[in-house]
């Protein structure tokens, strides 16, 4: 038993997406941080799809970037293809997705950690948390070393008691080729935390040399790519192509023939899997009438021939995987480099944590990432960043940093986790946000950069640029409001756009509100001409076009604000509030909401329970006053 | 009304001695409540102005006293809502009174009781009690809207998947169908049978059992002040009762008090008519004499009808053998003395129970519960009209989704169902999405 001589302010266990963001945040906020990882070479490793972003996820990446996190910048640097999705719809739901070089990404992320001041990295396998008087003291590794830390953040991903399944064979592992974390989960149980079990899966990786590219359809990146980070200036690298193909009836037959050896369908797997990321066997069984399912072949990186078979997550036996792949167009001769597999792992149901991600049972112990029951790199990174910021604030003795549901998807994410909990791996969807139109990709800076700057994670120049950008947008909007065009001027170019002709002068704003008109169309009519950068033009257009809807959502937000501001005293014992229904009492006790607003979101708490809670709180307030 | 805008809202619908907002506190104003557009008078009223803080809730309050009667109160309430007020949540007046310090701590438990008791049955029961069919209709509409919303959300959150998404035109058509249905519901809700005509009550029994005494006893306490609706014709005399907010028409009250002078055939014919037309029959017996064949012949005619068996004259020595009476599930023997007013409360309860099929009158009363439905339906209608416009204007799915969600939330106020998890669940069970 050796106690490591140095005391750390922050110890982070696990070097995945959550761990990296947390480590960079706490060290940049000037707290000596130790990152412990079981494998120094897998820091920043993407376990599954070699891609960052996508629907709803790109919103998270932009928010992480606006707060001063790292994921967006590294993704921009190591991406090999950029595509903006949903461009056929309104900008609130546009999403950037980047195919990323898996190896380049983790190396780039690791080098940022290596050069970071205040940050030490060690390879170690943590198996126990040391707690005294209800507060965390440090961690023990499996080689008997004790590291003393004032705060501990666990970002262990899928490694807690990880169990890989391929066919009916299973073995202990945290990710293909890596050890599982054993002992830590039991340590958490000993501390009184409830542990649950989840499952996720990944497809096989195949050798690109064995793909018949003549039989598949190429998918290219955008001509003018957008980037995740507000700080990315541009890049020259070429983009690669992905390839689209699909399964066929024969594929489904092969898969069905293997179901008797599927750990999923024979009930071997206990953990709950994500509905929105079904394995190919799930798809074939549940949607039996579909003749084919789409498959996308994604290159793993520039320096390798390995391809990721998107849409084919599976835990069927290897021989079935191979046979099934051979029935797919273009993959007739494909060879598997790494088989697909399912992995079960422990997680900590997140209603056991506060909104700042500290566990309720153990002081200064924070949890972030998949350990909270989420899935996805972006969801993990967002939590890691928030945990890191809040750990630093705790060490400073300041109030925690919480984001509202109306401020950021990160707010929606964390609120959903701690208020509603989750029984299956939680993934972000835009439909989870009530105020989707306010939480756009484009305005993450407006919503969050101020915070990033306040915490010292966004450099001053970047913040100044942001302020300038926002000023330009407001300026331009005012200009559009004030500039009027005569019907003749307007009709001349409106007729080109098949718009309805005008009979009186209108402001440029009014013109822009028409669905068929875009900012670019108005440039000839602008007094100052084409003077704004493209992204700013886009934002002006968005704000003008959707003003009505945006206003409505802002009003809804205001209504809810009042309930959010009514705070509930911490440590309130709901058992004594007999007027509440039994279910409400139980749920409220478990979640321990901070405000009436949060209480109202708990499932099982009805509007009349909320009414009663208000009366009870007032009653207690007066009783207290009467006594003093 | 209670709240900072109470007086301004009152200004918008009241014409009288002076404007409520300019009246000193604790004054009663005489005037009329007007319909908004046509400016027709709805009722002659007394309006009370009470200014904060010396009011029940400690906020500005306005109280409007109308002539009573079911229809008029409802119309006044509708105008109040149109002018910007919202229906109070169960127990809300008392809750506000408490939170604003007007009710002291010792009464806090009572406040809690009030809130709980008002919501015990829930709004959903209120709908079932009044109109089971409305609930079914709304649930069907809700179901269609959820289907539409699912399509929209799939298009937004899963556009990468190669699935078929409904065309714009199809969505517009589907929404218009729903709007049509809501329009119909709004029409009928103001002219539903129960409201327009009241439940029809008939009092039958052989001569001298005390039918007219019963009628008089009921009318003494529960006569409805509103006169028969314009446009209805009848060649029989009717009386209206208002029992706990439920309107009841006692049909063909002429000749109830006739004695043996009446021609028997005529008497029998009228009895049959009443039974035929009634929603509920009160079958009266004289408890002081044994049953005879006249009782039996009426009893036979009650086959298949909802009826209550009432034994009158319990103040006299009872000589009726009750095993002579038919047994049936819908039978209830209620013992009363119409002359002395005994047992009437129980009778009224039974009448309500029978009309509302075993449920009690919603705690908020029929008028308010009804109005909640109309109010919610109208708001849902507005949201859906907006959705159609958004689709027609060519805006993309996430905007339409905002309006559909609003409509679903509004309908959910009545049916008691919430939306968010539903949609994700539906998406995953219906569409093969995700990678």
Describe this structure in words.
The complex is a heterodimer of chains A (628) and B (435). Chain A is of the alpha+beta class and 628 residues long. Chain A is built from 20 helices and 22 strands. In chain A, strand 16 and strand 17 (306-310) form a beta hairpin. In chain A, helix 1 (17-28) packs parallel to helix 9. Chain A starts with a strand and ends with a helix. The longest helix of chain B is centred in the first third of the chain and has 36 residues, at 122-157. With 435 residues, chain B is of the alpha/beta class. In chain B, helix 2 runs parallel beside helix 12 and helix 5 (122-157) packs parallel to helix 12. Chain B is globular, with a radius of gyration of 27 Å. At the A-B interface, helix 17 and helix 20 of A face helix 3, helix 4, helix 5, helix 13 and helix 14 of B.
Brief sketch in words of this structure:
The complex is a heterodimer of chains A (628) and B (435). With 628 residues, chain A is of the alpha+beta class. Chain A is 36% helix and 18% strand.
Average pLDDT level of chain A: 92
- Per the principal axes of the C-alpha atoms, what is the gross shape of chain A? globular
Unreliable runs of chain A, pLDDT <50, ≥5 residues? none
Largest sheet of chain B: 6 strands, mixed
Helix count of chain A equals: 20
Q: How is the biggest beta sheet of chain A arranged?
A: 7 strands, mixed
CATH architecture descriptor of the largest domain in chain A? 3-Layer(bba) Sandwich
CATH fold title of the largest domain in chain B: Rossmann fold
Percent range of helical residues of chain B = 40-55%
Alpha-carbon distance between the two ends of chain A: 53 Å
Q: Estimate what percentage of residues of chain B fall within beta strands.
A: 5-15%
The tally of domains of chain A stands at 4
Strand order within the widest beta sheet of chain B: 6-7-5-8-9-10
């Amino acid at each position: 038993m050796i106690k490591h001589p140095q005391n750390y302010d922050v110890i982070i266990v696990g070097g995945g997406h959550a761990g990296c963001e947390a480590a960079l945040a706490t060290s940049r906020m000037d707290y000596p941080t130790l990152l412990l990882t079981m494998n120094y070479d897998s820091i920043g490793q993407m376990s599954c799809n070699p891609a960052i972003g996508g629907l709803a996820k790109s919103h998270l990446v932009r928010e992480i970037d606006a707060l001063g996190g790292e994921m967006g910048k590294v993704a921009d640097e190591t991406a090999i293809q950029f595509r903006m999705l949903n461009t056929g719809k309104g900008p609130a739901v546009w999403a950037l997705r980047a195919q990323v070089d898996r190896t380049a990404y983790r190396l780039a992320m690791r080098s940022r950690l290596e050069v970071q001041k205040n940050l030490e990295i060690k390879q170690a396998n943590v198996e126990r948390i040391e707690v005294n008087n209800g507060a965390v003291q440090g961690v023990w590794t499996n080689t008997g070393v004790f590291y003393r830390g004032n705060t501990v953040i666990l970002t262990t991903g899928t490694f807690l008691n990880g169990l890989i399944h391929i066919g009916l064979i299973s073995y202990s592992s945290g990710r293909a080729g890596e050890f599982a974390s054993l002992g830590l989960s039991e340590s958490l149980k000993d501390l009184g935390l409830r542990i649950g079990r989840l499952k996720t899966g990944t497809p096989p990786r195949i050798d690109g040399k064995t793909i018949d590219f003549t039989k598949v359809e190429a998918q290219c990146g955008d001509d003018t790519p957008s980037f995740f980070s507000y700080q990315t200036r541009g890049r020259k690298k070429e983009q690669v192509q992905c390839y689209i193909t699909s399964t066929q009836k024969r594929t489904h037959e092969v898969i069905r023939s293997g179901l008797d050896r599927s750990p999923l369908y024979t009930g071997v797997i206990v953990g709950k899997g994500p509905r929105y990321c079904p394995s190919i066997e799930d798809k074939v069984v549940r949607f039996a009438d579909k003749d084919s399912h789409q498959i996308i072949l994604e290159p793993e990186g520039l320096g390798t021939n390995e391809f990721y078979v998107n849409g084919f997550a599976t835990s069927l036996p290897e021989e079935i995987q191979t046979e099934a792949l051979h029935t797919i167009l273009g993959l007739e001769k494909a060879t598997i480099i790494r088989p697909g597999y399912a992995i079960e792992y422990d997680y900590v149901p997140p209603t056991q944590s506060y909104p700042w991600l500290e566990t309720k049972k153990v002081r200064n112990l924070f949890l972030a990432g998949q350990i909270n029951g989420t899935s996805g790199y972006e969801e993990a990174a967002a939590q890691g960043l928030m945990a890191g910021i809040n750990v630093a604030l705790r060490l400073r003795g300041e109030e925690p940093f919480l984001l509202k549901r109306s401020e950021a998807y990160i707010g929606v994410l964390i609120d959903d986790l701690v208020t509603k909990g989750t029984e299956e791996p939680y993934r972000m969807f835009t439909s989870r946000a009530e105020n989707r139109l306010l939480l756009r990709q484009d305005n993450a800076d407006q919503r969050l950069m101020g915070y990033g700057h306040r915490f010292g994670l966004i450099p001053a120049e970047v913040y100044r640029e942001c302020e300038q950008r926002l000023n330009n947008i407001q300026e331009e909007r005012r200009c559009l409001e004030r500039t009027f065009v005569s019907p003749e001027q307007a009709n001349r170019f409106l007729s080109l756009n098949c718009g309805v002709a005008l009979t009186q002068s209108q402001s440029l704003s009014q013109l822009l509100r028409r669905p068929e008109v875009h900012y670019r169309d108005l440039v000839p009519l602008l007094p100052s001409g084409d003077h704004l950068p493209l992204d700013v033009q886009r934002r002006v257009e968005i704000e003008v076009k959707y003003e009505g809807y945006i206003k409505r959502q802002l009003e809804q937000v205001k209504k809810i604000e009042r309930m959010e501001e009514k705070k509930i005293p911490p440590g309130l014992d709901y058992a004594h509030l007999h007027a509440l229904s039994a279910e409400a009492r139980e749920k409220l006790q478990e979640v321990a909401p901070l405000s009436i607003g949060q209480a109202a979101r708990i499932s099982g708490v009805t509007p009349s329970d909320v009414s009663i809670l208000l009366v009870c709180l007032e009653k207690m307030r007066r009783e207290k006053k009467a006594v003093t | 009304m209670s709240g900072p805008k109470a007086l301004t809202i009152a200004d918008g619908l009241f014409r009288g001695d002076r404007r409520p907002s300019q009246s000193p506190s604790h004054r009663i104003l005489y005037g009329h409540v007007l319909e908004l557009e046509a400016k027709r008078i709805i009722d002659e009223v007394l309006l009370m102005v009470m200014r904060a803080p010396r009011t029940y809730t400690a906020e500005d309050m306005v109280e409007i006293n109308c002539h009573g009667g079911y229809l008029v109160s409802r119309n006044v309430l509708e105008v109040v809502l149109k002018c910007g007020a919202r229906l109070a949540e169960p127990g809300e007046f008392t809750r506000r009174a408490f939170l604003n310090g007007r009710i002291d701590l010792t009464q806090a438990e009572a406040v809690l009781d009030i809130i709980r008791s008002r919501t015990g049955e829930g709004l959903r029961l209120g709908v079932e009690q009044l109109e089971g069919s409305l609930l079914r209709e709304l649930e069907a509409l809700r179901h269609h809207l959820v289907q539409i919303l699912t399509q929209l959300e799939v298009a937004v959150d899963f556009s990468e998947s190669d699935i078929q998404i409904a065309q714009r035109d199809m969505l517009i058509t589907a929404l218009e169908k729903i709007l049509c249905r809501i329009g119909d519901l709004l029409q009928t809700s103001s002219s539903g049978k129960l409201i327009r005509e009241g439940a029809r009550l008939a009092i039958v029994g052989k001569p001298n059992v005390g039918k007219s005494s019963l009628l008089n006893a009921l009318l003494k306490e529960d006569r409805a002040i509103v006169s028969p609706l314009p446009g209805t014709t009848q060649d029989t005399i009717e009386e209206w009762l208002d029992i706990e907010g439920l309107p009841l028409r006692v049909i063909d009250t002429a000749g109830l008090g006739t004695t043996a002078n009446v021609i028997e055939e005529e008497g029998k014919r009228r009895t049959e008519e009443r039974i035929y037309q009634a929603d509920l029959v009160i079958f009266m017996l004289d408890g002081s004499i044994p049953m005879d064949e006249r009782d039996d012949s009426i009893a036979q005619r009650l086959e298949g009808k909802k009826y209550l068996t009432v034994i009158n004259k319990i103040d006299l020595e009872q000589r009726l053998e009750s095993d002579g009476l038919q047994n049936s599930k819908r039978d209830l023997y209620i013992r009363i003395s119409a002359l002395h007013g005994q047992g009437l409360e129980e009778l009224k309860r039974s009448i309500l129970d029978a009309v509302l099929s075993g449920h009690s009158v919603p705690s908020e009363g029929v008028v308010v519960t009804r109005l909640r439905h109309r109010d919610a339906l109208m708001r849902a209608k507005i949201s859906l009209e907006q959705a159609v416009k958004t689709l027609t204007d060519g805006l993309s799915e996430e905007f339409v989704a905002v309006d559909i969600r609003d409509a679903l939330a509004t309908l959910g106020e009545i049916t008691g169902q919430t939306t968010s998890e539903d949609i994700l669940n539906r998406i995953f069970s219906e569409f093969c999405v995700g990678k």
